[in-house]
User: Fold this.
Amino acid sequence: MPPTMAAPPAIKELPEPPGLPEPLPEPAAEDLRLETILGALSDPLRLRIVQKLLLERERFDHPCGWFGIDRPKSSLTHHFKALREAGVIRQRQYGLERRSHVRRTDLDARFPGLLELVAAWTPDAP
Amino acid sequence: MPPTMAAPPAIKELPEPPGLPEPLPEPAAEDLRLETILGALSDPLRLRIVQKLLLERERFDHPCGWFGIDRPKSSLTHHFKALREAGVIRQRQYGLERRSHVRRTDLDARFPGLLELVAAWTPDAP
Assistant:
C-alpha cells in the first residue's frame, strides 16, 4: 500500500571543485528578488531543468546537452540564461561549453523551501 | 540586539462562516499547477495582495478596496482574476462586491512552504 504522503525527493549535494572558471554575470545573493525568481520558474521546461539539476546531478555542473531536452540550442540557451539572470542557476564557461548548477546555498538562505517545491514538482500529463 | 534570524511572519487563520455565496469559477485543488501559480505570483503587486491577505486579514474575505492599492479598478480586477484563475485566491460575489481570500488549505496541501515564502516576502525598496 502506498504511504499517505510520499517522502520529499532528495536534493543532491556535490562539493565545489577547486580551480573553476569565473561564473558568468549574475545577481548577487543579496539582490535576489522572489518575484523575479518565481517568474523564471513559471515554465515547465525551466522547472524540469532545475529539478533535474537538483535530483540527478552527476557532476558539479552540467552542459545543456546533459539534460536530454529536445529543443533547438538557441531556445535552450535562452532558458538557461533566464534562469541565470534571475539568480536560480550559476553558469560557467568551459572552453566552448557552458555548464550550470543551482545556486542552492543562496536560494536556501533567502527563500527557504523554494527548491523543495521545485524538487517535488510533477510535470503535467502529456 | 536583533536576532540573527527573524521569526517567520504569522499567517492568520479565520474560520469559514456559514451561508457564503458560491465561489467564482476556479481550478479544482487537484488541478493546481505549480508553474501556473508561480507565474501568477511573479509580480510585486500580486505578492502584495496575497501577503496582505495572509498576514492582515480582518474578516473571512476582503473586497479590493480593503487593500489600499492606488491603481485603477480595472487593473486590480485583472490582477485578482489572474490570482483566482491560477488557484491562489478564492473569490465570491456579494451583491456588487467581490471578495477574496487565499486558498490556504489547498495550497498548503499541494505546495507546502509556498505561502510561507509569500508571507516572508519583502517588497523592493522604492
Q: What stands out?
A: Chain B touches chain A through 19 residues (CB under 8 Å). DSSP finds five helices and three strands in chain B.
